[in-house]
Every structure is written in C-alpha cells, then in structure tokens.
Amino acid sequence: MKKVLAYEFMRNLNFVPVLAAVLLSSSSAFAAETNAPALDPHLEPFRPLLNKTWRGPFKNAKPDKPVVDVMRWERALNGKAIRSLHSINEGSYGGETLYRWDAEKQVVTFHYFTTAGFMTTGTIRFVNGKFITHETVSGNSGNVSEVKAISEFQPDGAFVVKTEHLKDGKWEAGRETVYREDPTAKVLFR
Q1: What is the residue range of 5's domain?
Q2: Other CB atoms closer than 10 Å to residue 83's CB: what's the count?
Q3: Are residues 7 and 69 in the same domain?
Q4: How far is CA 145 from CA 23, 137, 168, in A?
Q5: Would you say 178 and 59 are in contact if contact means Cβ atoms under 8 Å apart?
Q6: Is residue 89 part of a domain?
Q7: Cys-Cys crosslink for 76: which of 9, 66, 83, 88, Cβ 3.0 to 4.6 Å?
Q8: Can you list the residues of the chain whose pLDDT is less than 50?
Q9: Do residues 60 and 177 lie in contact, with contact meaning Cβ atoms separated by under 8 Å?
Q10: 55 with 182: CB under 8 angstroms?
Q11: 155 in the same domain as 106
C-alpha cells in the first residue's frame, strides 16, 4: 500500500512542474493584462455601462404594443474600443456599435450596424456627464438621414436616452427610453 501511495505521490510530483509552468504563464498573461491600460482614457465615460445588460421600455409605446430595448456594453479590442449590442422586442430589430477614439479627428467615433440593413457613422462627446451623439445614416432607414441623442445617468442609476432625427429635411422628436440594469435580460437576434 505504501508503495502505491509513494508511486502516486511521485507521479503527481511530475505533474507539479507542469502545473507550475501553466500557472506562471497564466499569471504572467494576467499580470500583463492588468498592467496594461484597461480602457483607452477617451473611453472612460463608458465605464459605468460596461459588462452590464440594460433594459428599457420606450416611453411613447402603446400599452397594448410595448417596445422594449435591451442593450449590453463591453470592453473590446484590448480596451481600444467599446462594443454595444442591442435588440428590440426580443430580436425584431437590433444592432451592434463599435466606439473608438479617432486620433486624427480628436473625437470618439462610432459605427452602428443594424439588422434592418442600414448603418450609421457618428461622433460622441462627453459634456457635463452627458453623452451627446450625432450620426449620419446610410442605407434605407425610412428617409431618416441624421440622428442626434443626449443620454445621461440619473441619480437613481437609470440611464436615459432621448433622440431626435432628421426625416425628410425636418427635425422630429425621436424616442425616450429609461434603461435600468437587468442582469436577466438578453440581447437576442433572430
């Protein structure tokens, strides 16, 4: 019995250097990641949204036809970008956005791709705790050519988004949505 235990112990000792090498390389990679900038400094205002899922009913939706948006925000490209996914009414419409610092333009820019086939490009500025966006639409979007939005956190932690859009040459009120963190909500695509 002692020989069997000694053999098992020795066999496991051979495993220890391998395990140690794996742990050291993993911890080195982890250390390199934690020592690297976690997020481009220009993207820091996004931090309260990151790694969270948010759910928000549209304010002007009809009670018998609710419109609910779910969005998820993540750090992307080693912190050089922010990725946002969203879907409305369990995937009836959705999109994906990548935000990044554009050193040439000296502004955070973004590209938004939709399941409806159109896309937008825009800029976002952070002013007095507000996220201010302006985007240009390309593709078939129902004659909407531009969108502006102001978003901000409320004292209770809600994230409010208000939009307006340029349609047929006239600015119109868009949507107003109050998002609240909801870890059970899912971004879905069909």
Answers
A1: 1-36
A2: 16
A3: no
A4: 53, 5, 8
A5: yes
A6: yes
A7: 83
A8: 1-33, 35-37
A9: no
A10: yes
A11: yes
Please report the pLDDT score of residue 149 as a whole number. 97
Angstrom distance (rounded) from CA 12 to CA 34: 32
Q: What is the pLDDT of residue 127?
A: 96
Instruction: Give this prediction's pTM.
Output: 0.78
CATH number at residue 98: 2.40.128.20
20 in the Ramachandran plot: left (φ > 0), alpha (ψ -120 to 50) or beta? alpha
User: 115 and 142 share a domain?
Assistant: yes
Alpha carbons within 13 angstroms on the beta-carbon side of residue 72 total 15
pLDDT of residue 152: 97
Q: Which residue's structure tokens are 């036809």? A: 65
Q: How many domains does the chain have?
A: 2
Q: Which amino acid is at 25?
A: S
